[in-house]
Amino acid sequence: MSENPSVPPRSSVLGRGSYGEVLRIGEILRKETVGGILLVAAAVIALIWANSPVSDMYFALRDF
């Protein structure tokens, strides 16, 4: 089966996106609301991690 040269290859999920996608994501991340949500989410994850059975890893990372 031969590939059609006019069809661009599919990009991977973690691959680099197109210039337009990069601009759109950058614009979204610059908004204060998104930054606040990310900060609150990171704080919640840290609280759960610090009070979980694997909290030794959390405190080792914190002390590093």
Can you walk through the features of this model?
With 64 residues, this protein is an all-alpha fold. The chain has helices at residues 19-29, 32-50, 55-63. The longest helix has 19 residues, at 32-50.
Q: How do the strands and helices of this protein lay out in sequence?
A:
Elements: H1 19-29, H2 32-50, H3 55-63
Q: Tell me which oligomeric state these chains represent.
A: single chain
Ranges with pLDDT <50 over ≥5 residues? none
Instruction: Please work out how many helical segments DSSP would assign.
Output: 3
- Percent of residues in helices: 55-70%
How much beta, percentage-wise? under 5%
User: How far from one another are the termini?
Assistant: 54 Å
Task: Report Rg.
Answer: 20 Å
Summed over residues and divided by their number, the pLDDT gives a mean of 80
Large-scale geometry: elongated
**What sequence of helices (H) and strands (E) makes up the elements?**
HHH
Sketch the major β-sheet. Answer: none
Query: Which class of secondary structure composition applies to the elements?
Result: mainly alpha
Q: What is the total tally of β strands?
A: 0
Relevant terms:
mainly alpha, elongated, 64 residues, 3 helices
Can I get a quick summary?
By secondary structure, the chain is mainly alpha-helical. The protein is 61% helix and 0% strand. The relative contact order is 0.06.
